[in-house]
Amino acid sequence: MEKSKAQLLRQHLAALALALFALIGTTAVGFIADSIFRLTAYGENKTCLVWGISTAICCFFMVLNFRISIWYAPIIINALFLFEPIMVMNFWSTYVWIPYFIGLILNVYACILALRISRKHKHEPAVQIKG
Question: Is this model's pTM higher than 0.85 or not?
Answer without folding.
Answer: no
